[in-house]
Write a structure and sequence with these properties.
It contains 7 helices and 6 strands, in the order E-H-E-H-H-E-H-E-H-H-E-H-E. By secondary structure, the protein is of the alpha/beta class.
């Protein structure tokens, strides 16, 4: 484990993007940079679903996904209220960010979208082992959703969108920490 970062730590850092963007790998590295810290894996909340659950990427899953992400936001906010740096790893598109942020119950979060080329994401999804999500069509669709939301909002998109990612996990984590320190990732929560 590395030495914790010096200087102020984010209260809640949301790292999002489409499947295969590198969220989970970089979030693990980021959570190890602050002390005390918590890594909240958004996918874990979907694992709580039992009978009657719908694969989250299918069209009929909207109500289920909405409820699950709302529960994740509330839990994430409680960790942040406890004085820990929280790194949230999950799909929180710009279209859902205001709701997610408000449900955390805190006044500001840091928000980063990882958006490598679609080919990179699809390659990573197709070569995953031990991961429940391998649907390439759904991955392509989610990538398109992030690209569309980012381009529609342009420079007014919340937080930071990283499209030209450095090589390696450490490089991506360093870029995220630099963006957090600069204040560019800050998203004020409006209720």
């Amino acid at each position: 484990m590395s030495t914790p970062e010096s200087g102020p730590a984010p209260r809640l850092l949301v790292v999002t993007g489409p499947p295969g963007s590198g969220k989970s790998t970089v979030c693990e590295a980021l959570a190890d940079r602050w002390e005390p810290s918590v890594l909240v894996e958004g996918d874990a909340f979907f694992a709580f679903l039992r009978r009657g659950s719908i694969a989250p990427w299918l069209p009929g899953a909207h109500a289920q996904n909405d409820t699950t992400v709302r529960a994740a936001a509330a839990a994430t906010g409680r960790f942040a209220d406890g004085g820990m740096t929280v790194v949230y790893d999950g799909v929180i598109g710009q279209w859902f960010l205001p709701t997610f942020a408000a449900l955390t119950g805190i006044d500001a979060i840091d928000y980063v979208v990882l958006l490598p080329p679609v080919e990179t994401c699809l390659e990573r999804v197709s070569t995953r082992t031990g991961h429940g999500f391998t649907d390439l069509d759904a991955a392509r669709h989610m990538h398109e959703d992030f690209v569309r939301a980012t381009s529609e909002q342009g420079s007014s998109a919340p937080g930071v969108v990283l499209t030209d990612l450095p090589d390696g996990v450490t490089g991506v984590a360093d870029a995220i920490v630099a963006a957090v320190r600069s204040g560019r990732t800050r998203y004020a929560v409006t209720v």
